[in-house]
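Marked as duplicate of an earlier ticket. Keeping the data here for the record.
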Amino acid sequence: MPRHEPTGIHWIEHGSGVPIVVLHGLMGNHRLISRFTESVLEPRPGLRRLHLDLPGHGRSSGEGVASSDDVADHVATFLDDVLGDEAYAVVGNSFGGGIARALTARDPSRVLGMALIAPVIIADHARRDVPALVPTDVEPLDGGTDEDRSDFAELTFRQTRQHWDLYLEEVVPGTRLADMDTIGRISAAYEFSVRPESRFTTYDRPVTFILGRQDPVVGYADALALAATYPRATYLVADAAGHNPHHEQPELSAAALAAWIDTVLSSTA
């Protein structure tokens, strides 16, 4: 796993061709969505997939990071160095979705498209339009810690053993590696100094939102409110899915991501 020394960002890279930058959520690492995204992207030739550990997450350093703005700055510096001036598409999950929006706002002409999986739209949780969580399919859970089970219960609509196993495999490892001092600083300055969508009138390249209808963390309504800004946006609001729709509705989520990347590639041909 290489390290970009100026930013301390670690990343995993597969393939060659059009760069696809994959950004995970807060308290995770690249494993949070890498299996899912690779299942869709790997079979398609001509894609260079870069799975980052965000600053202060996974194996990436949190040095010099004290806000969401700083995270976006570090990722932008990484991309400038690693990709030069090459255009790229971006997949962002939760907090990583917010970072994807911030990157696009800085230079819309360079971003070929965005796929946003349960993205953060509004930083302040109290101002988000989110549904109350009334879980279903609740099954006894084995393994993990009490904190893991509590976090899972707060994020997940269909609380089955299958989804719990995915959570243990893909979410929990990132929580073990997270630099909590850096996470605390980011959380204290979670809102961007400038709202990404205020930097442009519209972004008219392919955008797909993959949302959970029962997502108690970011909901889906705040993303729908951005439709006018993203005139080429496709929305999947998946029923029976919480904050990890790629776990709870994998087939729908994969179909949406596949349609998005195919549109991105056809737009760049």
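See parent ticket for discussion. The mean pLDDT is 96.
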